[in-house]
Specification:
single chain, 39% helix, eight-stranded parallel barrel, binds iron/sulfur cluster, 8 strands
């Protein structure tokens, strides 16, 4: 059985929210008895198996439906539960082996919770009847690949892409009008841009936040505010962005899918856009497992980062909410996504990154990079996927202040690894560790600056905002 189903159903299957008819309940029982042992099916009622190499993505603890998160361990295990393989890594590997990797580019919808726990076979049968049973059987038996795909999609695409979503695998460029922010303008003009992070305060006072914004503002184009990074509550990114605006700094609002529902996301976007926030970075967010005890919900996100991008792009370009209502004053947005170049094999990573660009990402900010030479195979794959000319890439850089911080990043932060060489340098530096950390950052930036396809750097200060001036000046990237 393991040849068919590489993992096992870790979380229990869903039950429907309302009482179904006897016939549907019976069909649901048969379906779970067949699809459970075969595919690890959890009865999500919104089946995507045909698009995910016949491995159920619901085996991912976060319920990711559009590809892996950036937290796969070097052993290709899931960082939420390291005893299991990352299910999305398995899906990608099998799709590549069977030549079906292009199907992974289609932007798939979030769950319709009205259907969760119910059977899907009835819907498939009804759709086959609509298309014509003879035509369907003839089509899938055909040797003509195009005809086969057409008839297959006439049944399954209708099911997996409901009218309220209409996802596809195409690139949808942003409108060609004026840039919506200074950050976008500078990138479009070809400037090598510097963005940085200012750490949100733990309390409600804003004095230190304002001081830190003032410290970095003269040296960077945009300031990111994380959304409860490492699943630890702090001042919200919206509040920090509002303070940044009042200080005349340009904010990038990070929104973590972990704490956001589809309803909340749409309301937040309308609200923050009215406040003047235009740059949005969509991230799935670190799992609650990385946060403090007691642990919050580790299961399931309502929407993943790809779905966030798709929804926000449609709000901006089509002027509609997810439910189809027209937005009179559509938001003006510059949309970004996080990416983790070393999370998986560059070929697989490029598939996920292409999907984010298709969904709406206009800029990428990467995870922390300490080995710039390892970026080359990833950039090559992005080039092969024809996206280097469609997305601005800012590489994440961090000045390490101590060996303890270096060790923490290496051991505890999903998707971040530090090479032995750097860990040793930091350990050996002793009291001069902060200086060594700055030198490492400058060496990394020096290499990044020369890379084709890279448009800037994103300095993650790790609460060391006062070092931004030195890093920017000594690396020759002053505004
Ligand atoms: S590593 Fe991420 S994508 Fe993979 S199974 Fe775990 S949570 Fe899901």
């Amino acid at each position: 059985m393991s040849g068919i189903k590489p993992a096992r159903r870790w979380q229990p299957a869903f039950y429907p929210f309302k009482r179904e008819s006897f016939g549907r309940r019976l069909l649901a029982k048969v379906e779970i008895c067949v699809k459970g042992p075969l595919f690890g099916c959890r009865m999500c009622g919104n089946c995507l198996l045909q698009e995910t190499a016949f491995i159920c993505p619901m085996e991912c603890p976060k319920g990711m439906r559009n590809g892996p998160c950036g937290g796969i361990t070097p052993e290709r295990n899931c960082y939420v539960d390291e005893t299991r393989k990352c299910i999305w890594y398995n899906i990608y590997e099998r799709a590549i082996k069977t030549g079906r990797e292009e199907t992974l580019l289609e932007v798939l919808p979030p769950l319709d919770w009205d259907k969760v726990g119910t059977e899907t076979w009835g819907e498939v049968v009804r759709q086959i009847r609509k298309v014509g049973t003879g035509k369907f059987i003839g089509g899938i038996m055909s040797n003509d690949k195009v005809k086969k795909a057409e008839v297959w999609n006439s049944v399954f695409k209708t099911i997996r892409q409901p009218v309220w979503w209409h996802g596809d695998a195409d690139y949808h460029p942003a409108p060609s009008g004026d840039p919506v922010s200074d950050f976008e303008r500078r990138l479009r003009e070809g400037e090598f841009v510097v963005a940085t992070e200012v750490t949100p305060p733990l309390g409600a006072g804003t004095d230190k936040l304002i001081r830190n914004i003032e410290l970095v503002k003269p040296f960077v184009t945009a300031v990111n505010f994380t959304d409860s990074s490492s699943a630890r509550p702090k001042m919200s990114s919206i509040a920090c962005c509002s303070v940044a605006l009042s200080q005349k700094a340009e904010p990038v609002l990070q929104i973590a899918a972990r704490d956001t529902t589809r309803t909340g996301l749409q309301s937040i976007i309308i609200g923050v856009n009215a406040m003047g926030i235009k740059n949005i970075l969509c991230v799935t967010g670190d799992n609650a497992k990385t946060g403090p005890s007691p642990t919050s919900n580790m299961n399931f996100v309502d929407i993943d980062s790809v779905q966030m991008l798709w929804m926000l792009r449609r709000m901006r370009d089509d002027g509609i909410y997810l439910d189809g209502r027209i937005i009179k004053n559509a938001p003006k947005l510059f949309l970004g996504a996080a990416t983790s170049p070393f999370a998986s094999d560059p070929i697989l990573q490029a598939i996920k990154d292409r999907k984010k660009v298709n969904a709406g990402a206009q800029f990428f900010q990467t995870n922390l990079i300490f080995e710039p030479d390892r970026l080359d195979p990833w950039l090559e794959q992005l080039d092969k996927r024809d996206i280097l000319n469609k997305v601005f890439i800012l590489i994440g850089v961090a000045p390490l202040k101590s060996y303890k911080i270096a060790e923490y990043l290496h051991m505890k932060v999903p998707g971040v690894t530090l090479p032995e060489k750097i860990l040793k340098r930091m350990e050996k530096a002793g009291e001069s560790a902060p200086e060594e950390g700055v030198q490492i950052a400058l060496e990394v930036i020096d290499k990044i600056k020369r890379k084709q396809g890279v448009n800037g750097i994103h300095i993650m200060t790790l609460s060391w905002e006062s070092i931004v001036q030195r890093i920017v000046t000594e690396s020759g990237l002053g505004k």
